[in-house]
Amino acid sequence: MSVISLKEGAFGRVFDADKMYVYLKGAFAGAGMSESTQALTYMRKHHEGQFRNDGQPYEIHPLMMACYAMSLGDELITDSVIATILLHDVCEETSVPVEALPFSEAVRRGVKHITLTRFHNETKYEQKKRYMNELLESLEATIAKAIDRYVNLATMPGTFSDDKMRKNVVETDMLLLPVLKQAKYKWPQATKLLYALRTNIRSVNDVQATLLGVKLTDPGFVNSPHAKDYAFLVTGEACPW
């Protein structure tokens, strides 16, 4: 990928989409992952012309997620999990409905539960809490969301405002990590993988919380005396200070 393919105003580390694409295509072929191979081209087609907040092509994000997932080498990183990862933002970022995705039921269900749905009678907090809990309807969605959050937490500095980053940190602490802990009881066979994902997410979230002065609810985290409660950014309540 050349620099001229970036949206004007791009900044930060530049990732090579074509290099990741070729690597994944070869890895999928070698592993007989037919749905992931199909999802790779489908994702690229539907994210064409879209850009992330940092000015890089949108496909960089699902490609990074898929590369990270493949590197884990876990038997539960299956064809349907990788396909869900690659497609996880397609329905939210385009006009394609989940039901129209030309993939297996497991992949469609995974994409469905990682795609945020909105009900008019819900507050944003109620909406996000329901969304996080509904991830448990699909192991594909749960794994994909965990990897999505890990990559987003690791790449958000310099791209998002401080309050947007704080919101992500609080949401991870209050909503996502507890759901990932519940997931190990629903899928005992995934305990090892879920532990690794939770640990990676928590480590990055702890660093971001410290840098941003965010007070966490995790009893295993010792908050700085200067940390503030930013839960209101997620709950929508009035700032307490």
Could you characterize the architecture of this molecule?
- The protein is an all-alpha fold and 241 residues long.
- The protein is built from eleven helices and no strands.
- Helix 1 packs antiparallel against helix 2, helix 1 crosses helix 3 and helix 4 packs across helix 8 (139-155).
Number of strands: 0
Q: How would you sum up the major sheet? A: none
Question: What is the CA-atom radius of gyration, in angstroms?
Answer: 18 Å
The percentage helix is 55-70%
**N-to-C span:** 46 Å
**Mean pLDDT, all residues:** 94
What pattern of helices and strands is seen along the backbone? HHHHHHHHHHH
The structural class is mainly alpha
Summarize the structure.
This protein is mostly helical and 241 residues long. It is built from eleven helices and no strands.
What key attributes describe this structure?
mainly alpha; globular; single chain; 241 residues
Compile the SSE list and pairings:
Elements: H1 17-31, H2 34-46, H3 60-71, H4 79-87, H5 90-93, H6 105-114, H7 124-134, H8 139-155, H9 162-186, H10 191-212, H11 232-235
Helix pairs in contact: 1-2, 1-3, 2-4, 3-4, 3-8, 4-6, 4-8, 6-8, 8-9, 8-10, 9-10
